[in-house]
What we know:
Strands 1, 2, 3, 4, 5, 6 and 7 form a 7-stranded mixed beta sheet that branches. This protein is α/β, with parallel strands linked by helices. It is built from 15 helices and 7 strands. β5 (330-337) and β6 form a beta hairpin. It is 42% helix and 10% strand. It is globular. It has helices at residues 12-27, 58-61, 71-87, 109-122, 159-169, 172-180, 182-192, 202-216, 227-245, 250-256, 258-275, 288-298, 358-365, 386-389, 396-411; strands at residues 31-39, 101-105, 281-286, 311-318, 330-337, 345-347, 356-357. The structure holds 2-acetamido-2-deoxy-beta-D-glucopyranose (4 copies). The site of one 2-acetamido-2-deoxy-beta-D-glucopyranose has 6 residues, from loops. Belongs to the histidine acid phosphatase family. It comes from Sus scrofa.
Amino acid sequence: MAGPGFRGHPAGPLLLLLLLLLRQALTEGPLVFVAVVFRHGDRAPLASYPTDPHKENIATLWPRGLGQLTREGVHQQLELGRFLRSRYESFLSPQYRREEVYIRSTDFDRTLESAQANLAGLFPEASPGRSEATWQPIPVHTVPVTEDKLLRFPTRSCPRYRELLREATEAAEYKAALEGWTDFLTRLENFTGLSLVGEPLRKAWKVLDTLICQQAHGLPLPSWASPDVLQTLAQISALDIGAHVGPPRAAEKAQLTGGILLDAILANFSRVQHLGLPLKMVMYSAHDSTLLALQGALGLYDGHTPPYAACLGFEFRRHLGDLDDNRGNVTISLFYRNDSTGLPLTLKLPGCPAPCSLGRFRQLTAPARPSVQGIPCHGSHEPATPAATVVPLLSGAVAVLAVLSMGLGLMAWRPGCLRAWGGPV
Ligand SMILES: *[C@@H]1O[C@H](CO)[C@@H](O)[C@H](O)[C@H]1NC(C)=O
Ligand SMILES: *[C@@H]1O[C@H](CO)[C@@H](O)[C@H](O)[C@H]1NC(C)=O
Ligand SMILES: *[C@@H]1O[C@H](CO)[C@@H](O)[C@H](O)[C@H]1NC(C)=O
Ligand SMILES: CC(=O)N[C@H]1CO[C@H](CO)[C@@H](O)[C@@H]1O
C-alpha cells in the first residue's frame, strides 16, 4: 500500500497511518449505525469423497463432526470480535446493552458458535477467562433454517431464480468455459470416484472444500491434488458463483437473494432514525453464500470467495456540514475484512465515491433490492420483513398496497421454495 517513497523509511508506516486517520477525520462524520455480516470461522469439511484417503479417520480428525466449527474457527471469531471492539471502542458502550446491539445468526451450529465466540471478543463480560462472578453470556437470535429469509436464500427451488440461472448457464461464455474443463472434470471423476461431468458445479466445489480443509489442518493430500488442480477447481467454482450472483440480470438475482438482506439493513437504519431508537449495531453470523449474495447485490463480486470469518461492514455516519439537507446528511461506507493481518479494505459502491451519501446509495442499489410488491419464493412469516420495515418511509397508499401484496405472498408461499441454492457453506 505504501508508495515507494515510504518503503524503507522507519517512520513510513506510522506516517501513512497518520495521513489515513487525518483523511478519515476530514471526510467522515460521527458513526450513527453499523451493520456487520460475517462468515463463520474455520470448520471441518462438509463431506468426503469415495476415494478420500482420510475417509476412515473422519471421527478422529474431526471429533466434533463434519461441518462443525474447529478450535481455529473459535479463535478466528474471538479475534474478529476483538477487532470490532477496537474499531467501535468509542461508539459502543463498554458492556453489552440489549437496546444497543442485536445479533442474529443462521440456525447452524457453526454460525451460532461463531456468533458467541465473536461476542466473547467484543464484550469483556463475555470473554473467556472472566471470573465467574462477573461473566455474562450474550443473546444470539435465530430463526429455523426453513424460515430464514434474510441470511439463506431459496434459489434452487425458486422457479424464477432457476430461470435466471438457466439463462446464465446457457450463455456462450459459460458454455465455452465449461467445455474447456470437461477433460479436467473427467480426470477428476477418476481421481475422486464421483460423477462430475454434466452435474452441478457445486459438486466440484465440494471436492475443493474437502481438500482445502484437509490441507489447512496439515493433512497430506493425494498426489493428484496438485496446486494446479486446486487452482482450476477454484476457477470452476468462481464460474459457478458468478452464474449465481453475477450477470446476466444480476440485479434481479439479487432481489431474490442478497438484495433482501441489503434492504433489511437499510430498513433497519431507517427505523432507528425515524423512531429514534437506541440501536447502534446489528450483527449477522452467516455463510460465504450470504456474503457472496450481498457482494452480488452491491455489484462487488470479483471472483474471490470470502475466507473464514470474513466480515463485510456497513457504516452509517452523520455527514458534517450538510446537516440541514434532509436527504444528504448521512453517508454509508463499506469495509471488507478478509485478512486479519492488515487493515480492512474500504469498498466503493460502483458509481458512488466513498463515502457514499445514503440517498445515492439507496438509488443505486434500488434495482437489486426487492420491490414493495413482495419477494417471489419468500413467505411473510417474519414480522420484520423488508417490505414491512420500509412502511414508515412510504405514503399511506403504498403502505396499504405493500400489506396487501404481503398477504398475497403468504397465500402463494410454498415450502418447496425455502431451500437454499447450494446449501450454506
Ligand atoms: C481410474 O482409472 C484407472 C485406470 O483406468 C482405474 O484402474 C481406476 O479404477 C479408476 N478409478 C476410479 C475411482 O474410477
Ligand atoms: C438527518 O436530518 C434529518 C432532518 O433534518 C434528521 O431527522 C435526522 O435525524 C438526521 N440524521 C442524522 C444521522 O443526523
Ligand atoms: C480480499 O479481498 C480482495 C478483494 O476481493 C482480494 O483482492 C484479496 O485477494 C482478498 N484477500 C484474501 C486474503 O482473501
Ligand atoms: C429496529 C429494527 O428495525 N430492528 C430490526 C433489525 O433487523 C432485525 C433482523 O435482522 C430485526 O429483528 C430487528 O427488529
